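seq:
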Amino acid sequence: MNLQLVKARSLPEQIADAIVEGIASGALQPGQRLIELELTRHLSVSRVPLREALKILEAQGILSRAQNRGVRIVDLDDAHIDQLCEARAALETIAARDALANFRAKPERLQRLEAPITLMEDAVRRSDWTGVNKADLAFQNEICLASENEIVITLWQVLARHVLMIFGREILTERGQSQIVQQHRKFIEDLLVARRSALPHLIKQHIMRLRRPRRALTARRRHS
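struct:
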């Protein structure tokens, strides 16, 4: 197991992020039981902040607790992923709608999208697919911040952990994602000229660019 702490607001939040990144990277598996003693040793933390982190992830639906079965990572089946995609599309559509005016009026705000794209480009060169996914989340976070919609920003911070956990695992199997940087630049171009009524389709298409090939691959494997 290879888990690392990442910077966050508090130690429990750092631990929660480390667990989510462990799931995204494959170090932790869906359905796996989390043993407190093992986690404290791997992360070099005490049980008090660890237990707070586990409670945070339980409240966010990433972990589940059952009597006599301990704390486990939720199963990431197709139904769970489809529900996440639906929620993400709805939230990102609102974010894009509210961000558009700022992007069009404030070029400096639009320029902030370049930083995560640069990180993404670097991660692609290193074949760091978890890094690519984290850069993708940073890209979307900039759109949420540009929306200046506090509810959207708050909800995205929670949803981002689910996205990293699920799509971090999917992108690991999609080695052909060399076009992902171009996809994001094209998304910006399309977003800036999009009519409000076209936003739901544009956002859904952007989100599902990985999901569709993944599901097709799964279907082919089942019939092989």
